[in-house]
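To: structure desk
From: M.T.
Subject: fold request, one chain
Message: Could you run this one when you get a chance? Sequence is below, nothing fancy, just the single chain.
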Amino acid sequence: MVLPIYIYGSAILKKQAVPVDPNYPGLQQLIADMRETLAYTEGVGLAAPQVGHSIRLFITDGAPFKDNEPALVDFQRVMINPEILEYSENTWTFNEGCLSVPDIHEDVVRPAKIRVRYLDENFAEHEEWLDGIAARIVQHEYDHVEGAVFTEKLSAIRRKLISGKLKNISRGKASARYRTRLE
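Reply: Done. Structure tokens follow.
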């Protein structure tokens, strides 16, 4: 089932999400619904808070960036209770958008490489180094489970320049080709 996306201004996007255990009710169905929602919205990542669940879970699908980085065709992950263990000192800038912040895209500076530990949908533990766009996708989604959105990474001047758009989104005046929700 395609789920509505909670948009900027929704309280759930500002809450730090709680850890997930294997007994979380409907977890496998939620993951399946998140995958369907991500495919429908043509996004590259989706965190549980964006669909109304304040739990430490997100999914990724790097395939839309396969032309830039061919290895991303296989970058599909379910990350439960993720922890970013290390960040590189090297950074790079990339233009990001977010399903919860429709029609806003801004250049964001992030570490180029990270080491992340997480559980998959079967609660098997994984640890891996990621770089490039894969690292960026994970950092962006990780921000969501920490209660942050990408616009908080912008300079004060950039935030001021888009403040009117953000205010409109938080008032429910957002235009997206997918269902949105504001609470």
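Reply (cont.): The helical segments are 27-41, 132-145, 156-170. Let me know if you need anything else for the meeting.
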